[in-house]
Design the sequence.
């Protein structure tokens, strides 16, 4: 009887798998790290990483929901950080953050317009922009880092933009929670979300009902660019400096987070909270390796193993749930 | 009674997909209050023609008039705004969305809170529930169920129910009775006639000339992308029309082969 109740729940909520994995890992990491992993300070660090990556993950999840993909998010994240750092001292941090986010939106527009106007696979287009904007970031910084001197980071605006903590948590978490609430509401409670999901489920059917498929896809790309760049702003706000390699390979973690969190790569199914749980799991693993003194190079290996294992595990969980 | 001014007028329409000539110089009129059977074999161009009328394809050349005004841009949104509801064969429902969400896709009712448009779930649920019950969906199917769970007949019923609910000026039905039981089929055919009697233009696409001959005022037969016959049902029997479909444009070729 209890199993009968669990199955529909698992069927409806593809994100359950990642919460199970997260819970198991938290218990395991806490038990095996002798208190170095499971403490408030470390948890705060994990949440900070989850937050900045989480903004990118929300944006990417929206694009994946439409059946497209954006692998340029890591480069956009880096560009966002650099634009913010470059402008923060010259103008004003808040204005700098707005400009950086706008640049991210522009990169999203670039991707979205090319994908929808030319019907080229988004994987190719955003692979191109991944390289273009990474290349620009490295070329324009020419090996130097942009930074804000520590003593100049006192203002409230720096605090607000990831520069400090509230109750032990980096202020980036506030932004993440706000973004999660707003985008979950847009996705589930507004016409835009209904159309976004429809486009991912069947773009032909959505089109036949008069949905402007191209505009919906474009809006997802723009939001993805803006959110990724804003994630970069908050990361730069925390670190106070960035170089041209900021955000490198983050696109892979972001895609993994979405998939682990129950977002279907083919589109039409998404869980923002699940994707964020995915980001939390990846940040947790990374931090576990750090506190255990494992060389960070192993992170990629472990990330790969976890992604494959989780994908297989999730598949069997879903198949079990679908069986009568 | 059909009006004299055509509601939809298609003039010398050509449509190419790459080098494939899908519609060849098609000219046909449709009037309000008329039930027109669009008949022909697979690949005759019936579906392609209605995909132009519902805005999915733009013609390569030729003209389309709606209510006397020339149509210059083709998009399903514009067709729906004109009042053209289409029941398509293969598309129209998104498997990943609930019945209620599918029902209102593209025209979602909203409640504004602080000016922000939120979906009005009550309207969406109530209206779609009323309609799917009329169309005889099982009682254990809820409007919150994803369409994925529905059988072929139920999916068709949702599409037909939706078109009838939002009917405006034109209802185009592409093989509406596929996947339906005998009783459901009769129901759909009755509906088509009712819609016509309410003054709508109904374009009914089918393979089955005998079925549509009973309902329609006029039959348009297509073959190889061309209109080969346009006749009133009072003037030509179903048998005679079937003969046209069977031989169609090939009659001449066959004779010369002899």
Sequence:
């Amino acid at each position: 009887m209890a199993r009968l109740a669990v199955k529909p729940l698992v069927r409806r909520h593809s994100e359950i798998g990642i919460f199970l994995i997260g819970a198991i890992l938290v218990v395991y990491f806490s038990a095996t790290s002798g208190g170095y992993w499971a403490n408030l300070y470390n948890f705060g660090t994990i949440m900070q990483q989850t937050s900045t990556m989480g903004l990118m993950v929300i944006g990417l999840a929206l694009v994946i929901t439409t059946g497209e993909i954006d692998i340029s998010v890591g480069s956009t994240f880096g560009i966002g950080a650099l634009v913010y750092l470059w402008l923060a001292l010259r103008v004003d941090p808040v204005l700098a953050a707005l400009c950086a986010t706008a640049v991210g939106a522009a990169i999203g527009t670039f991707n979205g317009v090319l994908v929808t106007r030319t019907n080229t696979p988004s994987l190719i287009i955003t692979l191109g922009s991944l390289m273009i904007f990474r290349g620009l970031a490295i070329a324009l910084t020419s090996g130097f880092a942009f930074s804000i001197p520590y003593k100049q980071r006192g203002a409230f605006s720096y605090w607000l933009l990831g520069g400090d903590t509230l109750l032990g948590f980096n202020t980036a978490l506030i932004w993440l929670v706000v973004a999660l609430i707003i985008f979950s509401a847009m996705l589930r409670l507004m016409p835009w979300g209904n159309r976004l999901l429809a486009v991912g489920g069947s773009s032909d059917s959505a089109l036949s009902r008069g949905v402007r498929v191209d505009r919906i896809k474009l809006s997802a790309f723009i939001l993805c660019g803006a959110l990724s760049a804003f994630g970069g702003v908050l990361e730069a706000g925390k670190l106070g400096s960035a170089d041209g390699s900021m955000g490198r390979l983050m696109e892979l973690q972001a895609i993994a987070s979405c998939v682990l969190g129950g977002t279907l790569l083919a589109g039409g199914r998404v869980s923002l909270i699940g994707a964020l749980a995915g980001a939390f799991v990846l940040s947790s693993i990374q931090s576990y390796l750090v506190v255990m003194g494992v060389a960070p190079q192993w992170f990629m290996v472990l990330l790969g193993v976890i992604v494959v294992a989780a994908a297989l595990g999730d598949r069997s969980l879903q198949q079990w749930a679908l069986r009568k | 009674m059909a009006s004299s001014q055509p509601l939809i007028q298609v003039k010398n329409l050509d449509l190419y997909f790459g080098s494939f000539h899908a519609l060849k110089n098609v000219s046909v009129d449709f009037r309000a209050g008329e039930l027109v059977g669009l008949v022909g074999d697979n690949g005759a161009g019936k579906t392609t023609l209605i995909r132009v009328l519902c805005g999915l394809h733009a013609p390569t050349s030729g003209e389309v008039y709606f209510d006397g005004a020339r149509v210059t841009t083709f998009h399903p949104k514009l067709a729906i705004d004109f009042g053209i509801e289409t029941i398509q064969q293969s598309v129209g429902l998104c498997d990943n969305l609930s019945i209620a969400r599918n029902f209102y896709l593209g025209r979602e009712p909203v409640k504004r809170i602080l000016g922000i448009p939120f979906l009005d779930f009550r309207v969406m649920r109530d209206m779609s529930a009323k309609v799917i019950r009329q169309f005889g969906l099982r009682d254990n199917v809820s409007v919150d169920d994803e369409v994925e769970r529905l059988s072929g007949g139920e999916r068709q019923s949702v599409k037909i129910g939706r078109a009838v609910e939002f009917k405006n000026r034109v209802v185009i039905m592409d093989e509406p009775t596929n996947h339906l039981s005998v009783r459901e089929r009769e129901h759909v055919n009755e509906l088509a006639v009712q819609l016509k009697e309410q003054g709508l233009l109904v374009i009914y696409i089918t393979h089955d000339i005998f079925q549509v001959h009973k309902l329609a005022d006029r039959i348009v037969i297509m073959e190889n992308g061309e209109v080969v016959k346009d006749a009133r049902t009072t003037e030509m029997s179903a048998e005679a029309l079937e003969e046209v479909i069977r031989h169609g444009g090939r009659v001449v070729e066959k004779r010369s082969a002899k």
Summary: The longest strand of chain A covers residues 146-147. Chain A touches chain B through 21 residues (CB under 8 Å). The beta strands of chain A are 146-147, 165-166, 169-170, 241-242. The first helix of chain A runs from residue 2 to 12.
